[in-house]
From TrEMBL:
Organism from which the protein derives: Aliidiomarina minuta
Pfam families recorded: GAF, GGDEF
Protein's recorded name: diguanylate cyclase
An example molecular function term from Gene Ontology annotations: diguanylate cyclase activity
Coiled coil segments of this chain: 153-180
Upper classification of the organism: Bacteria, Pseudomonadati, Pseudomonadota, Gammaproteobacteria, Alteromonadales
EC class (word): transferase
Catalytic activity: 2 GTP = 3',3'-c-di-GMP + 2 diphosphate
Cofactor(s) the protein requires to work: Mg(2+)
Length: 338
């Protein structure tokens, strides 16, 4: 059976069950070519879905035509189901131009309307006995039921697919919103809200490895803002954000807590690891914040703990950072172990 490639999936199942019916139609009528069409009443188009039989009359599945050019329409309009003299009765028709002499058509309908047609044709003259006509009508009914069922199934699966796509869109949108809500727009780091959620997760999941908290504050940032303007201050914060991202691992938590204050949390890290990380960060920040690097340094506080993570760990790192400020800024202070 030749068929259109436009459809797939459940349509192939439908095709399998229609195929023997078309063969039967050929046996009943004695006509060589049998085909089924789909009629789109709104678009006024007709499409050949399946063709069974000889290649004598060139009808291809997938072929589309205007309803105004349809042989089926001509016969429907004459309240007829058969023409045995197509060339005489419809000399200017598509059927005549394709070499049809006999053309038989029966409507294929769903519960509301005609949705297609079952057609049989031949280049020779054939008559159709009343019994054959009756049998063909039964076949058209069977095809109608199958097509209608398939139509309903495919409508349902299209609706399901649309709902699935809509839900996916909503999910992506809400993920995007939540990502935005947790991110500091200037630096791309987590904001306070994002930090709190990650920090809570870490506290809940933490087992026994040591965790280093690095508190960082830009030195004399207010002065720099006042001297060069807010935009330069923003550029410097952005450069710091980039430096921190470049120095961190995927598992680290990097956040801008507000203004020029940041937290950097490293899992599985010792004091020495944290000091190394702080050193790398200073160097990277210096590189990325040219040409005003000389005017801005970092005060850094470190605290490391391996058990009972709580917010005191943050406070201790922060306190160490303020001690670094007190010692003249641009230094790293490690808090005493608790
Ligand atoms: N450009 C810019 N400035 C900001 C932003 N948020 C906060 N600030 C400014 O950052 C400055 C923070 O200054 P402070 O932390 O009080 O003090 P500081 O000048 O850094 O001095 P020390 O911390 O003692 O070294 C304030 O002047 C804020 O107005 C921002 O998003 N962009």
């Amino acid at each position: 059976m030749r068929r259109t490639d436009k459809f797939s999936g459940s349509f192939l199942q439908l095709e399998k069950s229609i195929q023997p019916l078309l063969k039967l139609a050929s046996l009943i009528t004695g006509l060589e070519t049998i085909f089924v069409t789909y009629i789109d009443a709104v678009q006024q188009r007709q499409q050949v879905i399946w063709v069974e039989g000889s290649e004598d009359i060139q009808i291809d599945s997938g072929t589309e035509l205007d309803w105004s050019d349809s042989m089926c329409r001509l016969l429907f309009n004459n309240d007829s189901i058969i023409s045995t003299r197509v060339k005489d009765e419809y000399p200017h028709s598509t059927g005549a131009s394709l070499g049809m002499q006999t053309f038989v058509v029966l409507p294929v309908r769903n519960s509301e309307q005609v949705i297609g047609s079952l057609c049989a044709t031949s280049s020779r003259q054939h008559s159709l006995s009343p019994e054959a006509t009756q049998q063909l009508e039964l076949l058209a009914e069977a095809i109608s039921l199958q097509l209608d069922q398939w139509h309903n199934i495919s409508r349902l699966s299209q609706r399901y697919e649309r709902t699935r796509k809509r839900l996916r869109k909503v999910k992506l949108h809400s993920e995007e919103l939540s990502q935005k809500a947790n991110t500091d727009s200037l630096t791309g780091l987590l904001n306070r809200r994002g930090f709190e959620s990650r920090w809570t997760e870490l506290k809940q999941q933490h087992e026994s490895s040591s965790v280093a908290v690095i508190a960082i504050d830009l030195d004399n940032f207010k002065e720099l803002n006042d001297k060069h303007g807010h935009a330069v201050g923003d550029d410097l914060l952005t450069a710091f954000g980039q430096a921190l991202i470049q120095c961190s691992r995927d598992t680290d938590i990097c956040a801008r807590m507000g203004g020029d204050e940041f937290f950097w949390i490293l899992s599985n890290a010792t004091v020495a690891n944290a000091q190394q990380a702080a050193k790398r960060l200073r160097e990277q920040f210096k590189k990325l914040s040219q040409p005003i690097a000389t005017e801005c340094s970092l005060s850094i506080g470190i605290q490391v703990k391996s058990a009972n993570l709580d917010d005191n760990l943050l406070l201790a790192a922060d306190k160490a950072m303020y001690q670094a400020k007190g010692q003249g800024r641009a230094t790293t202070q490690v808090a005493a172990p608790e």
